[in-house]
Amino acid sequence: MNDVQIKGLFRSQKTEVADNGFSRRIVARLPRRGNMMPQVIVALFSLAGVAAIVAITGVKPLEELWKGVLLSFPGVSLTGTMMSTYLFTVAAVTIIGLSIRKAAA
Amino acid sequence: MRNEFLLVSRAALAGDSQAFGRLVERYQSPVRRMMLNLTGGDRQLSDDLAQETFIRAWLKIGSFRAAAKFSTWLYRIAYNTFCDHARSRRMSVGIEAAESMAGRDGDEDAGMDLARALTMLREEERAAMQFFYMEDLTVEKISTIMNCPAGTVKSHLARGREKLSHYLKDTGYE
Questions:
Q1: How far apart are alpha carbons B56 and A26 in whole angstroms?
Q2: Rounded CA separation A92/A98 (Å)
Q3: CB-based contact (8 Å) between B60 and chain A?
Q4: Which of A12, A19, A102 sits opposite B15 (nearest CB)?
Q5: Which residues of B touch A24 (CB under 8 A)?
Q6: Is the pTM of this model over 0.80?
Q7: Per the CB < 8 Å rule, is A9 touching B114?
Q8: Assembly ipTM
Q9: How many CB atoms lie within 10 A of CB B28?
Q10: B15 vs A25: CB contact, 8 Å cut-off?
C-alpha cells in the first residue's frame, strides 16, 4: 500500500461526529476556576482606562455628562465634585463586582 | 479566526462559559474523532476522554498563548489526556472495540480494517498517523502536539505506515 492509498483509507473514515448534546453537557459540567487573576487584571485595566480618560480630558466633560444625567431626575442638587467622586466610585465598584461575580458563577 | 480569538479571550479573561461552549461545539467533532481512533473505536471511552480534554482546556485556558493556534493547543491537551489514560490503564484495545467502530457511517469494512490495523500500532505511531492522515496536520504541528522533535514524528509515521501496509496487505488490500 502506498502513501496515497493510506491517505485515501483514512479520508474514507473521516466522518463528522454529531454533537447530540455533547457540548451542552460539557458546559453544564465545567468546574469553577480557582484562579481569579484574569478577572483582577480586567478590573485593574478598566480602572486604569477610567483614570486615563480623566487624565487626558479632565473631569469637566465627564462631570457635565453625569450632571446632565442626574439633573434629569427630579429633586437632585449635588455639587459637581461630589457627583464625580460618587460616580467614579460607583463605576469602579461595579466593574470589580461584575468581574468577581463572573468568576464566581 | 478573529471570532475564535474573541471566544478564547472571553473564556480566558471573563470566565465566559458560553463562549467556551461555542469553542466546544466547534472542536467536539475532531477531538471525539481523534479519541475514537486512538482508543480503537471505543465510543464511551473516547467521549469520556474528550470530555476530560475540554474540562482541562477550560481550567488551563488562562495559560493559552496566541502564538500557538488554538486547535494545536487543544490537540496537545487531548493527546496528553489520552497518554495519561493509556499510562494509567496500559490499554489493551481488543477486537470488541474495533468491532464497535464498524457501526460508524461510511464503508464498514474499511472502518473495521482501519480500526483493527490501528490497534497494531504503538500509541505514538497511532497518534502520529491519526494527526497526519486524518486531521491533515503538518509534521511540525504534530511535533508540537506530541512534544517531540519533527524527526521523531517522521519515524513514527514511517513505522506506522509500514505496519499498516503489512497488516492491510495481509488482509487483502493491494
A1: 11
A2: 10
A3: no
A4: A102
A5: 21
A6: no
A7: yes
A8: 0.77
A9: 23
A10: no
> Distance from A82 to chain B by nearest Cα, in Å?
32
In this structure, are residues A10 and B36 in contact, taking their beta carbons and an 8 Å threshold? Answer: no
Contacts of B130 in chain A (CB under 8 A): 10
- The pLDDT tens digits for A7-28 are 888 888 888 999 999 999 999 9
Are B97 and B39 a contacting pair, CB within 8 Å? yes
Tell me whether residue B120 is exposed, middle or buried, using C-beta atoms within 10 angstroms of its C-beta: 0 to 12, 13 to 18, 19 or more. middle
Contacts 24+ apart (CB under 8 A), B84-88: B85/B45, B85/B49, B85/B52, B86/B123
Residues A24, B48: Cα–Cα separation, whole Å = 14
Characterise B41 by phi-psi region: left (phi > 0), alpha (psi -120 to 50), beta (else): left
CB contact under 8 A, A99 and B165: no
Q: Does A35 touch chain B (CB under 8 A)?
A: yes
Helix or strand holding residue B81 (H, E): helix B70-89
Cα–Cα distance, A26 to B166 (Å, whole number)? 40
Residues of chain A contacting B8 with CB distance shorter than 8 Å: none
Q: Which helix (H) or strand (E) holds B23?
A: helix B17-38
Q: How many CB atoms lie within 10 A of CB A29?
A: 11
Rounded distance, CA A37 to CA A32, Å? 14
Whether B121 and B160 have beta carbons less than 8 Å apart is answered as yes
- Residues in B closer than 8 angstroms to A41, CB to CB, are 13
How high is the mean pLDDT of chain A? 76
Of A32-46, B9-23, B86-100, B116-130, the poorest mean pLDDT is in: B86-100
What amino acid occupies position B2? R
In Å, how far are A27, B89, B160 from B102, measured between CA atoms? 30, 24, 21
